[in-house]
TrEMBL record:
One Pfam family, short name: ABC_tran
Alphabetic keyword roster: ATP-binding, Cell membrane, Ion transport, Iron, Iron transport, Membrane, Nucleotide-binding, Transport
Name listed for the protein in its UniProt record: ABC transporter ATP-binding protein
GO annotation, biological process: quaternary ammonium group transport
GO cellular component: membrane
Keyword Protease on entry: no
Molecular function via GO: ABC-type ferric iron transporter activity; ATP binding; ATP hydrolysis activity
Organism: Phyllobacterium myrsinacearum
Domain spans labelled ABC transporter: 4-236
Family indicated by similarity: Belongs to the ABC transporter superfamily.
Amino acid sequence: MTFLDIRGVTKRYGVTTAVDDVTLSVAAGSRTAVVGPSGSGKTTLLRLIGGFEAPDSGQVTLNGDVLADGTAIVPAHRRSVGFVTQDGSLFPHLTVADNIGFGLDKRSPDRSQRILALMDMVELDPIMLNRRPHQLSGGQQQRVSLARALARQPKLMLLDEPFSALDTGLRENMRKAVAAVLKKAGITTILVTHDQAEALSFADQVAVMRQGKLVQAGPPRSLYLNPSDRTTASFLGDAILLPAEIGNGWIDCAFGRLVANTADRLGKAEIMLRPEQLKLVAVTEKDVMTSPDASAGYGKVVDIEFGGAVCTVMLAIMGSHGAQDGKPAAPVQIKCSAVNLPATGDHVRIEVLGEPHIFA
């Protein structure tokens, strides 16, 4: 069931269009990640949803209630929307308890119990109740900020790059912890991030923005394996982009003849493979020259960049596969595991797992 409905929302600042005719639906209880490079409009979209900005046109509806219809909006404090920012925005002069309870009625008899329950929800030790923000670590500050946002029992939670200031290990742990808290509370959530891995692991739905436009939205796996264009493909992770010739149920490219569901497509196209779809099998030069598999692709390792768990291998493609207009295929850069890594000068057979993605 659609819980948040954004229809044709546009926001301009002078001659700059920050959000351009964006339409997006978010299901109740789900987690959506809005991802894109800096300046793509993702934070502006979040502020429009939260009521901190008014759209120039379009409509925002939450659980059937119209929050914005063009420039006519419901103010932020009446939207039942929680908001957690990158720095947490805690009040430095207030204790942890007072920060969490800021939006709670001070006359309420169960206020203290409610604060303790919220601290337990975000896994904060009660010993921290009387500490101030400067006495907390970055992760603890974000937990306090999340607890404060949860105190108002919001229908919708907005997260604006809340983990970006944290160290890598802590960032991953916080992301998992926050996701678990919000899932348990059943709160619909929208996360804005520029981190592709964060978006793919956190969300049920990923929305990719570029230059103010929503270019693609859908389940993380679908977007990762079937991006709408080469820019989105590269943004969501390492991508190998190749020219190809499409036939009836097959694709000819630098990696050989691959089986694929080509539907009615024929002729030249561009395809995408993810690095994890490739496997390099060591062969001898004699194997390549005397008895090659006609459907397989072969290459010679011309350079290796060792990167620990993931290494970059530059392959010179051998044979006629991938040739375009009589010219040999261009060298291909492949990221692969350090396990069984070939050496410079080795010959390899390129095995492809799964089907390539064909761009429209």
